[in-house]
Design goal:
The complex is a heterodimer of chains A (288) and B (81). With 288 residues, chain A is of the alpha/beta class. Chain A has twelve helices and seven strands. In chain A, the strands form two sheets. Chain A has a five-stranded parallel sheet with strand order 2-1-3-5-7. Chain A has a two-stranded antiparallel ribbon with strand order 4-6. The longest helix of chain A is centred in the first third of the chain and has 13 residues. Chain A is globular, with a radius of gyration of 21 Å. Chain A starts with 10 loop residues before the first strand and ends with a helix. In chain B, a hairpin with a 2-residue loop joins β2 and β3. Chain B is globular and about 40 Å long. Chain B is of the alpha+beta class and 81 residues long. Chain B contains three helices and four strands. The model of chain B has no long low-confidence stretch (mean pLDDT 82). In chain B, the strands form two sheets. In chain B, strands 1-4 form a two-stranded antiparallel sheet. Chain B has a two-stranded antiparallel ribbon with strand order 2-3. The N and C termini of chain B lie far apart (33 Å). Helices cover 21% and strands 20% of the residues of chain B. The chains are: A alpha/beta (288), B alpha+beta (81). The interface between A and B is large, with 50 and 26 residues.
Chain lengths: 288, 81
């Protein structure tokens, strides 16, 4: 529950390794942002403030890539009553953690070519590797609609949790077919499920709430909001198996793990990618 | 008896639930899933598992998969918005 200090809730926005897109999405909420604009006390992209003040809510955007960011993050945790992983980079690793494929030295050499002051961590981590997180708001970026709802929920002290896949909002009809090949850039039929047409759409395993803006416009879902609770808590199966099986059932097409892994990029840096598949062994050992 | 409700708005009409139901509780009518004989439901929750739109609700049945129950993951899952 939030205690309002001096009659208002103080919001801070902390930016780590990211593109600032999530902060722009926050500005895109227009009226909602005007309502809360007075409450924002720290936001590097829109105001000049050096030190993080004591805040009620801090939205952390971006993954942890350099040591400086780790310090900033720990400072933010101390100053905040509620810490929110804002956007996919801080919640799941996101696009920032795609750099995990390369070694830090190679990244520095390729991007800058010169010695720089900052020291890179070995990988880009989602923030929950280092600090406790109170809420995760994934999305690349989270839609303005979602952000407004979330902030409203915070003020009321009751945040609505979304746990349904993108398919629930998409409205396209599934046709069982046998597709001959994977399609990428052709014009899809507007009423039929993208999977049935041969596009690799990850909507069925992705957390919804985005109003299916991509799939409604004919763009396959890239799973920017990460896996649903159903997929996360699935017994005896990892994500990639689950996704390939779903695609096989709908489209009659066996997709390789590598294909899926290459488009299921937003959870690349997350520990959820290597979730414990089965606990049978542990249970048997402890004799429960 | 378990009451099964199908959310028509969410349903994408893939009819996976019809294929998977072992006791033929859910049948296809006009290319839509329809709950015909709910008294035959054995509560296996297969239909809920295959449903890609989370449109099937079994009232009063709580799914708990003990063998993979992970308190840490559960806690994390409940924080997602």
């Amino acid at each position: 529950m939030l205690e309002e200090v001096g009659g208002r809730m103080r919001i801070g926005i902390v930016k780590l390794a990211s593109c600032s897109g999530c902060q722009i999405a926050l500005l895109d909420t227009y009226e909602k942002f005007l309502e809360i604009a007075e409450n924002v006390v720290y936001a590097p992209i829109i105001m000049d403030e050096r030190e993080i003040p004591e805040c009620d809510v801090i939205l952390v955007e971006g993954a942890v890539r350099i040591e400086h960011e780790l310090e900033v993050l720990k400072d933010a945790r101390k100053k905040a009553k509620i810490l929110v992983a804002f956007g996919s980079c801080s919640a799941l690793g996101g696009i920032s953690s795609l750099g995990n494929i390369f070694k830090p030295e190679k990244l520095l050499k390729d991007v800058y070519g010169i010695e720089i002051e900052h020291k890179l961590l070995d990988l880009a981590y989602p923030i929950d590797e280092f600090v406790d997180v109170d809420y995760y708001l994934p999305g690349c970026p989270p839609t303005p609609d979602l952000i407004s709802k979330f902030i409203d929920g915070l003020i009321k002290g009751e945040v609505e949790r979304i746990d349904y896949p993108v398919c629930a909002e998409c409205g396209r009809i599934v046709v069982h077919t046998k597709i001959d090949r994977i399609r990428r850039t052709e014009e899809p039929d507007p009423k039929i499920c993208l999977l049935s047409q041969g596009y690799l759409c990850l909507g069925s395993v992705t957390r919804g709430g985005c109003r299916a803006v991509c799939t409604k416009a004919g763009v396959p879902c890239k799973s920017c909001r990460g896996p649903t609770n159903k997929v996360m808590g699935m017994p005896c199966k990892d994500y990639l198996t689950e996704i390939t099986e779903r695609i096989e059932r709908i489209a009659g097409f066996k997709v390789s793990f590598d294909d899926i892994a290459s488009i299921y990029a937003f959870v690349f840096g997350s520990d959820m990618k290597d979730k414990p598949v089965s606990r049978i062994k542990e249970v048997m050992k402890s004799g429960r | 008896m378990i009451e099964i409700v199908i959310d028509e708005e969410r349903c994408v009409k893939c009819l996976e639930c019809v294929d998977v139901c072992p006791t033929e509780v859910i049948v296809a009518r006009d290319e839509k899933p329809f709950v015909e004989k709910p008294e035959r439901c054995i509560g296996c929750l297969s239909c809920s598992y295959v449903c890609r739109a989370d449109a099937i609700i079994h009232k009063g049945v709580y799914i708990e998969e003990k063998l993979v129950y992970d308190p840490k993951l559960e806690e994390k899952m409940n924080k997602f918005v």
